[in-house]
Design a protein that fits this description.
29% of the residues lie in helices and 31% in strands. The structure holds glutamine.
Length: 196
């Protein structure tokens, strides 16, 4: 099982480092060829406008969409924006795969970035550290979408089958819980597709 981190802009190295720490086989994904080799793809945090534009320029958006539900995708922060079907006050972004509506930079400016601890009851008992940097907020989610964690009553970690979205940055902490969970998801969906 191979995991890819979309290598256009953002916290690529940090995700690769965390995946390395938990023993996952991981590569940076820059081209269609790289994408063909992976079962799971992380779209990191960064600047969604930049990542979205370049993704389109290299036609990676089309290639990702073509993979459908055989590719498990985790969008973190800017990555979550790229996954969302609707973006408030803006045209939908590159992928538009997940049934959520999102508002960018909705906690305020850089200075309003913050660190907190979140309870993710389906993953473990102790809370996990979460860093929010100019994070988006989920304004709507369809019933197809499961909420795995909330911050002050708003969803901040969501899953729709093979799609995972976090509004925060687990790769900037020392806690591999969410990366481990992503590996489980990738294994689950890769298995069901391979029919064993
Ligand atoms: N503010 C960024 C955007 O809208 C997202 C920030 C992040 O990924 N930490 O693209």
């Amino acid at each position: 099982m191979q995991i890819g981190v979309l290598d256009i802009q953002g916290s690529v190295e940090e995700h690769l480092a965390m995946l390395g720490k938990i023993g996952a086989s991981a590569v940076a994904v820059k081209t269609k060829k790289d994408l063909d080799e992976v079962d799971g793809l992380i779209i990191p945090g960064g600047e969604s406008t930049t990542i979205g534009k370049l993704m389109k320029k290299y036609r990676l958006d089309e290639e990702i969409k073509k993979r459908g539900d055989t590719l498990t995708i985790w969008g973190s922060c800017a990555g979550a924006i790229l996954l969302a079907k609707k973006i408030r006050n803006r045209k939908p972004d590159a992928l538009g795969l997940m049934d959520i509506e999102i508002a960018r930079n909705a906690y305020g400016r850089q200075i309003d970035s913050f660190e907190t601890k979140l309870s993710v009851p389906s993953l473990r008992k102790q809370k996990i550290p979460a860093i929010f940097i100019r994070a988006p907020r989920v304004k709507k989610a369809s019933p197809k979408v499961k909420v795995l964690a909330e911050y002050r009553g708003e969803p901040v970690m969501l899953q729709q089958e093979n799609l995972l979205a976090t509004m925060f940055h687990p790769e900037l902490t020392n806690d591999p819980t969410i990366h481990r969970y992503f590996l489980e998801l990738v294994a689950t969906y890769a298995k069901s597709k391979n029919g064993y």
